[in-house]
Amino acid sequence: MAGNTIGKRFCVTTWGESHGAAIGAVIDGCPAGLALSVADIQGTLDRRKPGGLPSETSRREADQVEILSGVFEKRTTGTPIALIIYNRDHESHDYDRIRGLFRPGHGDFTYTEKYGFRDHRGGGRASGRETAARVAAGAVAEKICRQYGLDVMAYTIMLGGIWADRKEISEVNHEQINANLLKCQDHEASKHMVEKLEEVRKEGDTLGGIVEILVRGCPTGLGEPVFDKIDADLAKALMSVGSVKGVEIGDGFDTAGKRGSENNDIQVSKGYLSNHAGGILAGITNGNEIVIRVACKPIPSITKAQTCLDADGHEIEYAIKGRHDICVIPRIIPVCEAMVWITLADHLLRNRTARI
Amino acid sequence: MAGNTIGKRFCVTTWGESHGAAIGAVIDGCPAGLALSVADIQGTLDRRKPGGLPSETSRREADQVEILSGVFEKRTTGTPIALIIYNRDHESHDYDRIRGLFRPGHGDFTYTEKYGFRDHRGGGRASGRETAARVAAGAVAEKICRQYGLDVMAYTIMLGGIWADRKEISEVNHEQINANLLKCQDHEASKHMVEKLEEVRKEGDTLGGIVEILVRGCPTGLGEPVFDKIDADLAKALMSVGSVKGVEIGDGFDTAGKRGSENNDIQVSKGYLSNHAGGILAGITNGNEIVIRVACKPIPSITKAQTCLDADGHEIEYAIKGRHDICVIPRIIPVCEAMVWITLADHLLRNRTARI
Amino acid sequence: MAGNTIGKRFCVTTWGESHGAAIGAVIDGCPAGLALSVADIQGTLDRRKPGGLPSETSRREADQVEILSGVFEKRTTGTPIALIIYNRDHESHDYDRIRGLFRPGHGDFTYTEKYGFRDHRGGGRASGRETAARVAAGAVAEKICRQYGLDVMAYTIMLGGIWADRKEISEVNHEQINANLLKCQDHEASKHMVEKLEEVRKEGDTLGGIVEILVRGCPTGLGEPVFDKIDADLAKALMSVGSVKGVEIGDGFDTAGKRGSENNDIQVSKGYLSNHAGGILAGITNGNEIVIRVACKPIPSITKAQTCLDADGHEIEYAIKGRHDICVIPRIIPVCEAMVWITLADHLLRNRTARI
Amino acid sequence: MAGNTIGKRFCVTTWGESHGAAIGAVIDGCPAGLALSVADIQGTLDRRKPGGLPSETSRREADQVEILSGVFEKRTTGTPIALIIYNRDHESHDYDRIRGLFRPGHGDFTYTEKYGFRDHRGGGRASGRETAARVAAGAVAEKICRQYGLDVMAYTIMLGGIWADRKEISEVNHEQINANLLKCQDHEASKHMVEKLEEVRKEGDTLGGIVEILVRGCPTGLGEPVFDKIDADLAKALMSVGSVKGVEIGDGFDTAGKRGSENNDIQVSKGYLSNHAGGILAGITNGNEIVIRVACKPIPSITKAQTCLDADGHEIEYAIKGRHDICVIPRIIPVCEAMVWITLADHLLRNRTARI
What we know:
Largest sheet of chain A: 5 strands, antiparallel
CATH topology of chain A: Chorismate synthase, AroC fold
Largest interface: C-D, 110 and 109 residues
Number of domains of chain A: 1
Number of helices of chain A: 8
Low-confidence stretches of chain A: none
CATH architecture of chain A: 4-Layer Sandwich
Order of helices and strands of chain A: EEEHEEEEEHHEEHHEHEHEEEEEEEH
Oligomer: homotetramer
Radius of gyration of chain A: 21 Å
Distance between the termini of chain A: 28 Å
Strand order of the largest sheet of chain A: 1-2-3-7-4
Structural class of chain A: alpha+beta
Strand content of chain A: 15-25%
Mean pLDDT of chain A: 94
CATH superfamily of chain A: Chorismate synthase AroC
Shape of chain A: globular
Helix content of chain A: 10-25%
CATH class of chain A: Alpha Beta
C-alpha cells in the first residue's frame, strides 16, 4: 500500500489538497450494522473549526461532510464509507507568491524534491486542512469504540511554555476541557496561554505546545506484537499528524531516569497501584488508562520576515501572508483524538481473531 | 497482515520465542544482486551480545545466524531471505516459578489476557531475545542503505539520570562511540554510568536511559505522506522495541516551548542554518541529518521482592531470579539502529516509484 | 486491508452503491508527473456506456467523472487521486419489490447473510455499476502502462454459444474491434450474436459469453513469485468482476490435454516459436503477448418468472422488472481491460525494486 | 508487501529454494488456542510425497517438518508459527549443465530477466519444491477450518486427455479418492491414466490434467467484495501454483454458453435446486458446496531433446536429465487443497469483523 491509508482492518484512506475541489476519506472495513448519520460526523468535525480565538485562522470553511456510500437507512452496510468535504473557500486567495518559494518549516522543498513539483496552493496535500478528513473518519471509529465502552479525550497541558496544573487522571473530565477554548482543564493557566498567544501574534510569531490524550475504558488485550504493538501504532498515528515531533506513552521520557522498582506498576487484586506504563505492557493494553503525550512544534508560518530559498536557489526575504493559526492548539486536539479512535477501532476489530 | 511484519516493500517478518527452538526473520522484497554473506550479518549481531559489563545478563548465546534462502553465490536473488538463529542456551533454566505469575512491568498479564494463555518461559515472544532477529534483518537493510550512502549510528546520551555531554552532531563519530562499552561518546560520563549500574545492581534494581540515533547522508525525498511519513514510520519502528516509551524527532518535546521564528530551520543556498526539525519536513527527508531520541524504561525484572498477582488473582511477594541485564543500554543500541535501517531501506525502495 | 482495495503499489480503492449518491475510486501510489486530464478518463468511461444495442439497459447515466485531487496543472502530484461519478439516474425507479426478496443468481442472499441486511436498491454494492469506478481508475493505470509501451485490448470471442472465427494474435486489431458494437473482430459472427441477443431478449432470458484479453508490448520481468505471480494477480483481478466464472492464461484448460513437447514454447534467438504459455512463465512475463480468456455467466436478471425466497423463507414466483442488459458483453469489455491495466501498472511499479 | 505472502489475516509467507539449505513457511495471524502438533502437519505433508508411480520423480525427500515457534504445550500461542523442512537430498545432483541455459517452459529466462541472474539449481525458487511449504502451512489452515466444519477435497478428473466419469457432487468421497494413486475417484479411468503416463514417459514426454476441488460445509458469508471476493482470492491462490493455467468456479466456462434461466440456481426453502454457481454469489459463499476446477499444464521438463537458448543467445539442442515427474498429478492435489484451506482460513477470520 502507498502512504495514504492507515489501519489494517479498519482502513482509512484520505485524499485531497488544501485548495483542490474537495477533501475526503474512504473507510473500508467498518462492520455492518453500526448506526451512523451525518450528524454523528458533523458534530465532531465542528470541534476542529476555528473557535473564535484571535490566534486562529480567519479562513472560514463550512466543512459540511457528506456520506456518499456505505450507509443505508442509517446503518453501515459493511461496504466502504466515502466521506467528502468540499472546499468552499479555496479560490479566494492568491498563492502565486509562494509558487516558486520554499517556506522554512514547511513541506515545500521536500515535496518538490520527492515529486519533482508540487501543488503550492496553501500547502497542497501537506496542509493541515487534510486533517479534517481524518477527523471525519475518526468520528466513525469513535462510534465503534463506544460500543466497547471506550472514551478518548485530548487536552492541552502546555502552550508556549505555560504549563497547566496537572490533574490526577481521575479528575480529568470532558466538561472542564470542553468549557475552555484551548481545551485546557486548568482555566487559570489557559488565560495566560491566551495572553501569550495574543502577544506572540502581535510579534508576528507562533507557538507550540503539548497535548495529552487519555483513553478510558479500554479493554485488555489490544495490540499485536511484535511490530503492531498498540503503542507503536499509536505513535505512528500521532506522529503522522503534521506538527507532532514527539510522542510518549505513560511516563514516557521520564521513565528513562527512573529505577525499575519505581517504574513497575504493581498489580494487586483490586487493580494497579500506579500507571507509569500508560496502560500498555509489551505492546498490549493492560486495562489501565492509556496515557499519551504529543509535542507540537510552533506553526512555521510566521508573519515576520525570514530568509527563504526560491526555486532557483536564491535567498530572498519573505514574510508569510494569509490566514494562519498562531498555534496548532486547540485545533489539533480533535485530530489527535481521531488518530487514537482510528487506531483503537482497528485493534478492537483485529483482536476478534486473537483466539480460536 | 498480522503484527509480526514491518515494512511495505522491504518487508521483515520475525518469529520465535525466548526459549523455543530458534528465532528468525524472513525478509521479502530485498532487491536482487546485493552482495550478502553470513559475515555481514554476524558482525552486526555480535554487537548485540553482552559485552562484559557486570550489569549485563550472564545468558550466553552464541547467536550464530544462518542464511537459509534468498542468497546464491554471495548475492541476493530477489527471493525471500530466511535467517535463523538457534537458541542453544534455552533449556538450562527453570521458569516454572513464573508459570502462574504475572510479573510487574512484563507482558505476562497482557499476553494471557489477549491469547488465553502464554509461553511463560523467559517471556516467550515478549522477550528481548526477539530483537536478535531484528538486528539480523537490519544488517541486510543496512547493506541496501549503504549503497545510497547512508550511515546510522545510535549512542547513549543518558543512563540512570546521568547525562552525557552533548556534542555537536558534526562531532559524533563511530570511533569514540564504539570504543565505549556503553556506546556513549562522553567517556567521562560513561564512567559514572557504569558506577551507577553497579550500585543499582547491588540494590537489586534496574535503570533506564535515553538513546539518540543519527542518520547521515540521507537523500531528500524519503517518506510517503500522509500516514507513512518517514517520522511516523520511524516512530512506529522504534516504539515497537519493547522498552521504548517515547520517541522524538529533532528537537522533539523541546520544540513545544519554542517560537516559530526560533524553530524554523532557515535554508540558504549552501544548506540549512540549523536542524531543529531533525531532517524531516512534512514527513519527507529534507537532506539534513535525521536525529531521533528514544526513551528506554528501566528493565522491569528486578531482584528486589515485589508484589505480583498469580493466575488465581492472589497477591504474592516475588523476587525475580535469573540472568537479566540492569539496563537495556547498551544492548538496545544495535536494535534501534536495526529498526532505523529497516525503515530507511523500505522507504528508499518505495521512493523509486515516486515519479513517472 | 479490507476487500475494496486492489494493488500493492498502484492501489485502487473503489466505493459506492448502485443507487447511492455517487460512486468513486481513490488511487494511491500513482507516480508524480504523469499527464492526466478528465478527458483521458472520460473517454475510457464512455466506452462502458450502453452503446445502442436493443439488448442493453435503458438506464441512462451521464457518467461524468470528476478528478477531485491528486492532479495539479494537468499532471499527477504523487498524492491520492480521487475520482467521483455522481449517480444522476438513481432515484427514478422503485426497488421496493425486491427489498425482502432474494433474487436467484444475485448477491441478495449472500450480502444479507454476511452483513445482516443489505442496500437492496439495484443490487447496492454488488451492482455492475461499481465497475464504472474501476474503469475510471483503469484509465489512469493505462496512462502509466502506455509510457512503457504496453497495449491492452479485450474483445468478444463467444456470445450465447456463437464463436467468433479465431484470428491469429498478430491479426487482432483495435480498429476492427472498435468498429463492432459487440467488440467482436469477426463481424459476420457478430451479426448472429446480435440476432441471438434479440431472440433471447424476447423470451425474457439472458446470455453469457467469453472475452479474450490481449496484452502487447509487455516487458519481461513483471510478476512477483511465488504468490503475486502476474498470472495469479490477473486471475484475481478478473475473477473479481461480478460475472466472471473462469479465467485462463494462454492455452489455459487446453494445456491440460497436451504433452510437454507440444506445450513448451521454444525460444530461439529471434523470439518464441509459439505462445501456449500466454506470455507468462513461472509467474513472470516472458516478453511474449499476454493472452487471457474469461468466462462470463449469463446475467441473472431475467424477466421470465422464477421461484425466489423471501426474507421469511417463503417461496414466491417473481419476474424481474427494470432496466437490464441481456448480456454483460460488450459492456464488460472495458472493465476487463481496466482490471488488466491496473494489475500491469501495479507490477510495472513494483518491478522497479527488483534489482539493487 | 512483496510477493511471498498470501492472506490478509491468516498470513502465510513461504521461503526457500529447491537446492538451498531448507524451505519453510511463517504463519502470522493464527489464533491462539488451536491444538497443533508436528504430526498434524507431517501427515498432510506426506500426501505430497511421490507415491510409488513410475511416472513420479525418484528424488527422495524425507520432508520432515519442524515447528520452530508459535506452539507451546501443543497449542498455538497467537504468535508466528515458523515451519521448516530441511532439504536433505539437495547436493547429490549436478545442475551445472543448465546454469547457462534457459529451459523451455521453465522460469529460467524470466527469473534471469527480472533479477539479473538466478539460482539455477533445480529451478531455485521456481521449483515445485516450494509447494511443500504451502502444504505444511495449509495443514494449519485446515485445523482452523475444521473447527467450522469445513471439508476440502481435491481429485483428478482428467489426465492426459482421459476423463474420469463425473460423479454427482454428493457421491464424491475421501475413501475412494484416497484409495487411488492418482487421487481419481473413477478407478477404471485411473487405470488408463496410469497406462498413458507410462507410455508417455517412455517417449520422453509429459502430460497435464484437470483437478477439481470440492469444499463442503462452508458457512455462508465468506468473501469480501469487491476485490477480495472469495472466488477472486481462490483464483489467485490456485493460479499461484506453478503449473496452473486456468481456474473456474462452478460451471465455469460452461456458463458462458448458457441462458440465465438455465444457470440461475433456484433457492427454495429446503436449499438450492442446483449449483451452477459453485457455491459463490457476488463473491460471497452462499452455503452451497464450493466447486473449483484447475487446469494443469504438462510438466515442461521432458527428456526429449528440445531447442534451448543459452545465456549468449545461441540455440542448442538439450535433453533434460534428472528426476522429474511425468505429470503434476497427483502431487499437485494436496497443494491445491492447501491453497484452498489457506484462503478459507483467512476469510473465516476476516469474516469475524463483518458485523458490529
